[in-house]
Amino acid sequence: MNQDGRNPLAEGRVATRLPAADLDRARRFYAEKLGLDPVDERPGGLLYRCGGVDFVVFRSAGTSPGTFTQMAWEVDDIEAVVTELRRRGVVFEDVDLPGLRTRDGIADIEGNYPSKGARGERGAWFRDSEGNMIGIGQPVR
After folding, report:
1. Average pLDDT over residues 82-104
2. pLDDT for position 115
3. pLDDT at 88 > cutoff 80
4. How confident is the model at residue 62 (pLDDT cuts 50, 70, 90)?
5. Taking Cα atoms as reference points, which of 81, 74, 93 lies closest to residue 138?
6. ∠121-122-125 over CA atoms, to 5°?
7. What pLDDT, on a 0 to 100 scale, did the predictor assign at position 91?
C-alpha cells in the first residue's frame, strides 16, 4: 500500500512474459500454429495482444521447464478451439493424474474457478516451440 492507502499492484495490469531461446522459431510457431502476429517487436522480444491483454515472448538464455501452465486463454468453445489448433498442427498434452485426466485432449476440472461463478472448467494444454506450457480453458457454468 502506498501513502494514500491504494495498492499499486491491485490497480496495475498483469502482463505475461514467456522465454524463447529462438525468437524467429517462436514467431513462426505463434503465426503458423496460433494465427497470431506481433503488434510490436524489438530486438529482444515480440509483443502480442489478445482480447485487449498483452503478452511478450522474449529472447532468453534460460528455458522454461514446461511443467506448469505459464499462460492460458479463456474461450467460449474449447472443442472448436482445440479442433482448429490441431488442424494447424498443435499437439495437445495427454494428462493422466489423480483427479485430472484428458480425453481427446480436454480435461473436465471440477470446482475450478469458483470466483468466476462457474462450477468447474474444461481445460487443454500444449507447448509452444520454446517449451512453454500454454493452456486453454472454458468455464463450466
Report:
1. 94
2. 64
3. yes
4. confident
5. 74
6. 120
7. 97
Q: Cβ-count burial of 135 within 10 angstroms (0-12 exposed, 13-18 middle, 19+ buried)?
A: middle
First to last CA, the chain: 35
For residue 109, give the nearest of 56, 119, 60, 15 by alpha carbon: 119
Cα 138 to Cα 127: distance, rounded to the nearest angstrom: 18
Q: Are the C-beta atoms of residues 123 and 107 closer than 8 Å to each other?
A: yes
Specify the CATH class of 14-140 in words: alpha beta
Beta carbons of 30 and 22 less than 8 angstroms apart: no
d(CA 45, CA 79) in angstroms, rounded, equals: 31
Distance of CA 81 to the CA centre of its chain: 13
Q: Tell me what percent of the residues of the chain surpass a pLDDT of 70.
A: 96
Give Cα 126 distance to the centre of its chain. Answer: 9
pTM for this entry: 0.89
